[in-house]
Design a protein that fits this description.
Length: 453
């Protein structure tokens, strides 16, 4: 429809005004008691408020909000994140919001100007040409619109990642609106991801090779989805792991038109900015993180010939992209605990992504949506054989590298006795709290974890 972009811009501008955004900063200024910070807030408010008087000069508006964001960026990256004043995060979000509103106003003005030119051209030509094609070329079909909208989503995501929720989390609503619009224009040809054949794995072929003298790993039992009573008595209470089949049979993400594939991921979440782990795993020397869009992540790391590993790990993507949350269901067995709160995280990566041997404090259902993974588990009672890191940051991670075990450095590891298994698409792995687990992707993989207690 020829007015889709216009309607999108008008919808964004109707949700919030610049004056409402400025009120957030005004309240911070009024409540501030530290004199030096109050002076800085006054200057910030002046810069942001001046954008109201310079609506015709987009350059000034854009420059002022950028100055504010750059200044607050320095504040956000000074000292420990937990000690950063919440006001700086709110101001960062407000500056991002004002930049989005400025850009949206500019885009809307340009569209209206173009439509006016089309109308005049029609009147001058007397209708002797394809009017519909001209309108589409001018507005909806203009390829310059999508990059602008993608940049607006990125601005919103940076405000969400580095800022704090303001005005009923308006940045999230704006990002969702634009992402939904862009998904309607998506074509699978827009993402350059190679299609590969689905391999057939065997446990023997993919199993870690432990040195002679180590306890042999036992194949983990696979069961059909149990009743709540059966699960509590036979698995939860004795803290016994199991692979469960049938629990994901009603997930749209597993099969059907909403099956999670790389093209589907790019269509639904392509412009959203996410943190990607780069490197062998989080204990390696050269491990780092980068912010990029889901589309960039797919094109750079979800192809068969990528030289480095990129991993979207332990990210709350379902909160960030509600359309993806509609494709999954929280397993009923999560509600056999003492609390109803369930933490949901998404794990997406290519072949070779590794979560080293580590432990978590909550019950965990690791649901394999697409692809296959190899898992190794050791009970918490074997912790004395697994050499946890002495540093506070990695206290829940073993120093034993299961892919290259060194018994000279870790001689007691030979007493540890664990399980291993293939986790295939449509299956769910129950990991009791405190149980050590190692996970390796055997192919491009989509997983969702549910932590509960």
């Amino acid at each position: 429809m020829e007015n889709d972009v216009t309607e999108l811009c008008e919808k964004i501008l109707s949700k919030v005004s610049k004056e409402q955004a400025l009120d957030v900063v005004r309240k911070l200024y009024t409540a501030e008691v530290i004199q030096d910070r109050r002076i800085v807030l006054g200057n910030i408010l002046y810069l942001l408020d001046s954008t109201q008087d310079d609506q015709e000069d987009v350059g000034i508006s854009w420059r002022n909000t950028r100055i504010v964001q750059d200044y607050v960026w320095e504040k956000l990256n000074t000292g420990h994140w937990k000690e950063v004043w919440i006001g700086w995060r709110k101001i960062y979000a407000v500056a991002a919001l004002i930049r989005i509103l400025n850009a949206t106003e500019c885009l809307l003005k340009q569209i209206r100007r173009n439509n006016k030119e089309v109308k005049e051209a029609v009147e001058n030509k007397g209708g002797d040409f394809n009017k519909r094609k001209l309108i589409q070329d001018t507005e909806l079909g203009d390829p310059r619109c999508s990059p602008v909208l993608e940049d607006l989503v990125k601005l919103a995501d940076m405000g969400l990642l580095l800022g704090a929720p303001v005005l009923k989390n308006i940045l999230e609503h704006v990002a969702q609106e634009i992402t939904q619009y862009l998904s309607l224009e998506f074509s699978e040809s827009d993402t350059k991801v190679q299609k590969t054949l689905v391999p057939d794995f065997t446990l023997e072929d993919v199993a870690v090779k432990l040195p002679q003298g180590c306890q042999q790993l036992e194949e983990l039992k696979c069961i059909e989805e149990p009743s709540m009573e059966d699960f509590i008595i036979n698995y939860k209470a004795p803290e016994k792991p199991a692979i469960i089949s049938g629990a994901l049979s009603d997930w749209p993400a597993v099969s059907g038109p909403r099956k999670w594939t790389v093209p589907y991921l790019v269509r639904v979440a392509g412009p959203r900015t996410v943190p990607i782990e780069i490197g062998k795993n989080y204990t390696s020397e050269h491990w780092t993180q980068r912010l990029m869009t889901v589309k960039q992540f797919a094109e750079q790391y979800l192809q068969g010939d990528c030289k480095e590993v990129g991993y979207l790990a332990q990210h709350q993507l379902l909160d960030q992209v509600p359309a993806l949350a509609e494709d999954i269901c929280i397993p009923d067995l999560c509600f056999t605990g003492e609390e109803d709160d369930v933490d949901m995280n998404v794990w997406i990566g290519p072949k070779g992504t590794v979560s080293p041997l580590h432990t978590d404090p909550k019950h965990n259902f690791l649901c394999q949506v697409s692809g296959s993974k190899y898992v190794v588990l050791y009970p918490s009672t074997d912790s004395k054989y697994l050499y946890p890191h002495p540093t506070p940051l990695l206290f829940n991670t073993s120093r034993v590298d299961l892919q290259n075990v060194n018994l000279e450095e870790h001689p007691d590891f030979c007493h540890a006795k664990g399980y291993h298994a293939l986790l295939k698409a449509g299956q769910m792995l129950y990991i009791p709290p405190g149980m050590w687990h190692f996970v390796k992707s055997l192919e491009t993989s989509f997983s969702v974890s549910f932590w509960w207690q």
